[in-house]
Amino acid sequence: MIYLSLALAPVFALVLYIYYRDKHDREPLGMLLRSFIAGIISIIPAAIIEYKFGIEDKNSLMTTAYATFLVIAGAEEVSKYVFMRRIAYHHKAFNEPFDGIVYCVMVSMGFAAAENVMYVFQSEDPMNTAIMRMFTAVPAHFTFAVIMGYYIGLAKYNPIRGLEYTLKGIFGAMFFHGLYDFCLIQQVFPFIAAGAVVSLLLAIRLSYKAMRMQSENSKNFMENEQPNIE
């Protein structure tokens, strides 16, 4: 029970954090729960793609880049996006730019919860695995979701540039996800592993900035102004 609690604690902490960051028009709890469950389910197609197209060779930078940026990051972030779009994007509750962040985070946290439980219970040292992932993998999934959600929120309220913003969101999340995994997984140059921490800190910084900017956009939107879509 303690391992399960440790695996899920950071997920629910970040869920509460984003819920209370949504200051202007908080989302219905039912929609948040549906999005979270969708995130859990989204791990299935991602896992199938990773199994089918993944490469185990970690001693080549090229193959590791392919496996991390395209297969792992691509499968996981696209799967999250597809489920978020199916569940939340066209729902009436998605009614302000900040909601892009909220719903992307909820789907991503569902994904992270399922992934974390699997990693912890498959580990030979579940306690250390749970604690390590509490400060790395789970916050990483959160930041990827915020980056994607920022652009998804812009896309919904700027149809002319909707495709552009959507692609920026998906590929932005894929880039930081791939960079994080690449630094962590490659075995050619051990010192590159430190880049995972650097990429995570950079993603956290960008995520905080994105939340602040999108919160301001939502404030303007609720006051019948146009969001500042840069």
Structural topology:
Elements: H1 2-21, H2 29-53, H3 61-89, H4 98-122, H5 126-135, H6 137-156, H7 162-185, H8 194-222
Write structural notes for this entry:
There is one protein chain. The chain is mainly alpha-helical. Helix content is about 80%, strand content about 0%. It contains 8 helices and no strands. The N and C termini lie far apart (about 45 Å).
How would you summarize this macromolecular structure in one to three sentences?
The chain is mainly α. It has one domain.
Key words describing this protein structure:
230 residues; 8 helices; single chain
Strand residue content: under 5%
Q: What does the overall shape look like?
A: globular
Question: What proportion of the residues is helical, as a percent range?
Answer: over 70%
Number of strands: 0
The secondary-structure element order is HHHHHHHH
Low-confidence stretches: none
Mean pLDDT: 90
Instruction: Give the count of structural domains.
Output: 1
Oligomeric state? single chain
Radius of gyration: 17 Å
Largest sheet descriptor: none
Number of helices: 8
Distance between the termini: 46 Å
Structural class: mainly alpha
